[in-house]
Design brief:
6-stranded mixed beta sheet, elongated, alpha+beta, Heat Shock Protein 90, Ribosomal Protein S5, domain 2
Length: 625
C-alpha cells in the first residue's frame, strides 16, 4: 500500500508546537498518558469480549508492556487492547474532535502551570510524548480485523499513515528519544515513574530491557476494591489523574462501599478546577460504570444527575449482569437506585465539608456552584438539601452566605428573603432598587447566574420565608423603619403625598400612557429619582430580558414607574405641577424620567433621537432660566 501523508488539524499543529517547546513543567507525564491510554484500550476490549469472546481467544490476559532499547535509544509502550484501524488513527491522533477546541487553543499561553491545567482539561495529553521524542510511530491492529496500520510523525506539522504488519491485536507506541532524554532508558528510574502512575490500574504493567524477561512492576489491582487504610493520598491523586485525565488535584475524594439492598463501591472525585466542557449543552458526566470490576461504559445518562456532572471516578456494582447492553442500562431500574444512592452520598459529603470549613467550601462553590444550582430547578426530591448547600453573594459583604445564615441575620419585622437578579454583582450592587433596603439595614441576595431566574420561578420559600424580588412592585417596606441615622433626616425632608404630588402622578400617567402600567410613590428609593419595577403578576425583569434575548418572548410587559417623593427633582416637579397643571409642559420631562429609569435597568432608550432632542431642550431651558 502507498504511504499517505496527511496534515494535522490546525489546532493540533499549534498544540504540538507548544509541546515540543516543553509546555509541561514535568516531562514524566507522558508516561502517565501512554499507560492511561493503554488501560482504556484494554477496558474497551474487555467489555466487547463479554458478548464476543472470540475477540480475545488467542490472548485473554490483558497487559501493558514497556520495552527499553538502549542501543537504538527507543522506548516502546505496547498493549493488547482494542487497537485502532486507519480511520481511528486519523481521528484520534490527527485531530482534536472536541467541542470548545478553538477556545482551548486560544487559551494556551506561555505560562507552564496554566497550560498544564488546560491540556489536562482537554484530554490531549498524548501529544506530550513529543517533549521527549523527535519521532513517534504508532503501530496498531484493531481487534477483529486482519489489517494493521502505522502512524508516524515528527510532531512538526504532518503525519503519515501506511499499512503495517502486526501479529496480534493492540497498539504499540514507539518513541525515538531526543538528545538529552536518555534518562528515560534507565530501568530503575522508569520503574519508579510507572509505579507512581500505575499502581492503581487493574492490569499488569511490565518492563523489559533488551532481551531480558519482562517484569511486572505494579500491584495490578483496582484501587477502589482496596481498603482505604492501604491507600495513600498520593495514590488517590494518581488514580484521579488517570480516571479523570486531569492535571489538577482533587478538591474532595470520596471512597466508600455500600452494602445491603444495593451493593456497590464508589471512588469519586470533585475536581479543584472546572473541566473545559462543564457547560457543554450535552451536560455529560465523567463517572465510569464497572460491573464486577469490568469497565462497561462512561455514558450512562442516568447514573449521575447532570447537576453533578463535574464528578469524576468509578462506580462498581455487583448487582448488574456483565452482558447487559448499554441500551438496556439506560432504562434499568437499578441504575435509578444507584443514581439516588450516589447523589445522596455526594450531597451528604458536601454538607460535611461545608460545615467543617467554610473557606474550603467556598473554593468548591466558586468553581461549581452555578452547576449545582441547576438541581434546584430540576431535582424536586433533593431541593431542600441543595438549598442548604447553596451559597450566594449579598449586600452584607464580599463573602458568600448560606440561606441559613441569611435568615439568622434577618431584621425583627422582616418576613421575606429579598433578592435581585442581573448580569453581574457589580451592576447589581449599584441598582437603585436596593436603596430603600440598604436604608433599613435589610440584606439583599445578589444573584447573577442565569439559572437563578429559573429556580426562583419554582421555589417560593426557604424556612417559611418567602423569596421576594426587590424589582417587583409588591415589595412593601412600610413595616420596617429606616436606620436611626436616616430616620431623623427622613422626617425632616418628608414630603406629604398632597394634592400637588397627586397632580404630578396624574400628569406623568397621561404623558406616558401606553409605555408604562402605572406611576406611584416609592418607599424603596432614597437617592434616585425614579425606577421601574415589575407588577406582581408579571415576569421578573431580568428573566424577561433573558427570554427576549433568546427569542422565547416577543414582547415584554409594561412596567410600573416609581418616583421618589423626597428627591429634589421630584419635589420641584410636584410644585410645578401644582402651579401649572399643564400636560404638554411636562411631556419632555416625563419621557426623560422614563428613559432614565430604562438606562438604570440596563435597557436601551426606545427612541434615541427623541431622547437626545428632549435632553437638549430641557438643558436649554435650564440655562435660559
Amino acid at each position: 500500500m502507498t504511504e499517505e501523508r496527511l496534515s494535522f488539524q490546525a489546532e493540533v499543529s499549534r498544540l504540538l508546537s507548544l509541546m515540543v517547546n516543553s509546555v509541561y513543567s514535568d516531562k514524566e507525564v507522558f508516561v502517565r498518558e501512554l499507560i492511561s491510554n493503554a488501560s482504556d484500550a484494554c477496558d474497551k476490549l474487555r467489555y466487547r469480549a463479554i458478548t464476543e469472546p472470540e475477540m480475545i481467544a488467542d490472548d485473554p490476559q490483558y497487559r501493558v508492556q514497556i520495552n527499553i532499547d538502549k542501543a537504538a535509544r527507543m522506548l516502546e509502550f505496547s498493549d493488547n487492547g482494542i487497537g485502532m484501524n486507519r480511520d481511528d488513527l486519523i481521528e484520534n491522533l490527527g485531530t482534536i474532535a472536541r467541542s470548545g477546541t478553538n477556545a482551548f487553543v486560544e487559551a494556551l499561553s506561555g505560562d507552564n502551570q496554566d497550560n498544564v491545567s488546560l491540556i489536562g482539561q482537554f484530554g490531549v495529553g498524548f501529544y506530550s510524548i513529543f517533549m521527549v521524542a523527535d519521532q513517534v510511530e504508532v503501530i496498531s491492529r484493531k481487534a477483529g480485523e486482519e489489517k494493521a496500520w502505522t502512524w508516524k510523525s515528527d510532531g512538526i506539522g504532518e503525519f503519515t499513515i501506511d499499512g503495517a504488519t502486526r501479529e496480534y491485536r493492540g497498539t504499540s507506541v514507539v518513541m525515538h528519544l531526543k538528545d538529552g532524554e536518555d534518562n528515560w532508558l534507565e530501568k530503575i528510574s522508569l520503574t519508579a515513574t510507572v509505579k507512581k502512575f500505575a499502581d492503581h490500574i487493574d492490569l499488569p504493567i511490565l518492563i523489559a530491557e533488551g532481551d531480558e524477561e519482562a517484569e511486572t512492576v505494579n500491584q495490578a489491582s483496582a484501587i477502589w476494591t482496596r481498603p482505604k487504610t492501604e491507600i495513600t493520598e498520593e495514590q488517590y491523586k494518581e488514580f484521579y489523574h488517570h480516571v479523570g485525565h486531569a492535571y489538577d488535584d482533587p478538591w474532595l475524594t470520596i471512597h466508600y462501599r455500600a452494602e445491603g439492598k444495593l451493593e456497590y463501591a464508589g471512588l469519586l472525585f470533585i475536581p479543584t478546577q472546572p473541566p473545559y466542557d462543564l457547560f457543554d449543552p450535552a451536560r455529560k458526566h465523567r463517572v465510569k460504570l464497572y460491573i464486577k470490576r469490568v469497565f462497561i461504559t462512561d455514558d450512562v445518562e442516568d447514573l449521575v444527575p447532570s447537576y453533578l456532572r463535574f464528578l469524576k471516578g468509578v462506580i462498581d456494582t455487583e448487582d448488574l449482569a456483565l452482558n447487559i447492553s448499554r441500551e438496556m442500562l439506560q432504562s434499568n431500574p437499578l441504575i435509578t437506585h444507584l443514581r439516588q444512592a450516589v447523589t445522596r452520598r455526594i450531597l451528604t459529603e458536601l454538607k460535611k465539608k461545608a460545615k467543617k470549613s467554610a473557606e474550603e467550601y467556598a473554593v468548591f462553590w466558586n468553581a461549581f456552584g452555578v452547576v449545582l444550582k441547576e438541581g434546584l430547578y430540576e431535582d424536586m426530591e433533593r431541593r431542600d438539601d441543595l438549598l442548604e448547600l447553596a451559597r450566594f453573594q449579598s449586600t452584607a459583604g464580599d463573602e458568600i452566605t448560606s440561606l441559613i445564615d441569611y435568615v439568622a441575620r434577618m431584621k425583627e419585622n422582616q418576613s421575606s428573603i429579598y433578592y435581585i437578579t442581573g448580569d453581574d454583582k457589580a451592576s447589581l450592587s449599584v441598582s437603585p432598587h436596593l436603596e430603600g433596603y440598604r436604608a433599613r439595614g435589610l440584606e439583599v441576595l445578589l444573584l447573577s447566574d442565569p439559572i437563578d431566574d429559573f429556580w426562583l420561578s419554582t421555589i417560593n420559600e426557604f424556612d417559611g420565608k418567602a423569596f421576594v424580588s426587590v424589582t417587583r412592585g409588591g415589595g412593601d417596606l412600610s413595616d420596617i423603619p429606616l436606620e436611626e441615622s436616616l430616620e431623623a433626616e427622613d422626617e425632616k425632608d418628608n414630603v406629604a403625598l398632597d394634592a400637588e404630588f397627586a397632580t404630578l402622578i396624574a400628569l406623568l400617567k397621561t404623558n406616558l400612557e401606553g409605555q408604562i402600567k402605572d406611576v406611584r410613590a416609592s418607599d424603596r428609593l432614597t437617592d434616585s429619582a425614579v425606577c421601574l419595577v415589575a407588577d406582581d403578576g408579571d415576569l421578573d425583569m431580568q428573566l424577561e430580558r433573558m427570554l427576549r434575548a433568546h427569542g422565547q418572548l416577543q414582547q415584554g410587559s409594561m412596567r410600573i414607574m416609581e418616583i421618589n417623593p423626597r428627591h429634589p427633582l421630584v419635589r420641584q416637579l410636584a410644585k410645578r405641577a401644582g402651579e401649572d397643571n399643564s400636560v404638554d409642559d411636562l411631556s419632555d420631562i416625563a419621557n426623560l424620567l422614563y428613559d432614565q429609569a430604562r438606562i438604570l435597568e440596563g435597557e436601551a432608550v426606545k427612541d434615541p433621537a427623541a431622547f437626545s432632542r428632549r435632553l437638549a431642550d430641557v438643558m436649554t431651558r435650564a440655562i435660559a432660566d
